[in-house]
Design brief:
Layout: H1 4-7, H2 16-24, H3 31-39, H4 41-49, H5 58-80, E1 82-83, H6 101-110, E2 114-115, H7 117-132, H8 134-139, E3 144-153, E4 156-166, E5 170-177, H9 183-189, H10 192-207, E6 213-219, E7 226-230, H11 233-256
Parallel strand pairs: 1-2, 5-6
Antiparallel strand pairs: 3-4, 4-5, 6-7
Helix pairs in contact: 3-4, 5-7, 10-11
């Protein structure tokens, strides 16, 4: 029987751009695409056929930079990111704005995304908060970052890209949040349990290993606290049943080529 340490050999190194491209084409079902389908099958269908323009926000870009630094360390961060306040306008002596053509051309020529010196200091605060948390530090002390695993679930090809896999502790997902006091509300609001139940399900289908699941969250603002949450297997089981039912509905929609919005019928408001 495969052990958690054997799982490491089953995890693939796939460039992030290639992973997301395969999702956008609908070649592989990801947890985010399944969430789109649960919300609105028609929206899911548009995303994987004609495409939906989703311009990444600065907050999202900085979140990816935080993942790189926290999970992979300083050297990997410097290989993938430049730290600079950008080119200076010779006429004014001030840096060009990030929305200007000059800045965009400079960043393209640089060949990697850029964070400012202030943003790099901020990223360091997040990294330091995670390292200062004994349990979080232990979770990230052993394992691999950003590995991909693929398997068929309910007859549909699925794939996952885990933030971290610790062979002794299982799947570890890193989140940034505005306020740890409200993080458990965010878990429900953003469907994190369904996301991680999807990860556990695909990993099990590929390897036979039932991995534990843990969330690490770090605040994006003062006081920059970090916290760790374990998700009960029974909670993940409930979310997995919902995921599997959604995958079967997705398969049915493909067969029938019918993609409802979910609001085709009249609904009734029964409360004040």
């Amino acid at each position: 029987m495969m052990t958690s340490f054997d799982v490491l050999e089953k995890l693939a190194v796939v460039p992030e751009a290639d992973y997301h491209a395969a999702s956008r084409k609908g070649t592989w079902l990801s947890s985010h695409l399944l969430a789109d389908f649960r919300r609105c099958p028609e929206f899911y269908h548009r995303k994987v056929t004609v495409g939906v323009v989703e311009k990444p926000s600065r907050s999202y870009a900085l979140g990816r930079a935080a993942h790189k630094l926290i999970l992979e360390g300083e050297q990997a961060f410097r290989e993938d990111y430049a730290v600079s306040d950008g080119p200076t306008n010779p006429k004014t002596g001030q840096p060009y704005g990030k929305l200007t053509k000059a800045y965009a051309e400079w960043e393209v020529a640089l060949g990697k995304p850029v964070v400012t010196a202030d943003e790099r200091t901020w990223l360091g605060r997040l990294h330091g908060a995670v390292q200062a948390h004994e349990e979080a530090r232990e979770l990230f002390s052993t394992g691999v970052a950003e590995r991909v695993c693929r398997a068929n679930v309910e007859g549909v090809p699925c794939h996952i890209r885990m933030d971290w896999f610790n062979p002794g502790r299982g799947i570890v997902d890193l989140k940034t949040t505005a306020d740890l006091d409200w993080f458990e509300h965010d878990v429900r609001r953003f469907g994190y349990v369904h996301q991680l139940a999807f990860y556990r399900m695909v990993l099990r289908e590929a390897t036979g290993v039932e991995a534990p699941v843990t969330l690490v969250a770090v605040e994006k603002e003062e006081p920059f606290r970090a916290g760790v949450w374990a998700i009960f297997p029974e909670t993940l089981d409930t979310a997995e049943r919902a995921n599997r039912a959604a995958i079967r509905r997705l398969r049915d929609c493909r067969d029938a080529q019918r993609w409802p919005t979910g609001f085709e019928t009249v609904r009734h408001i029964t409360t004040l």
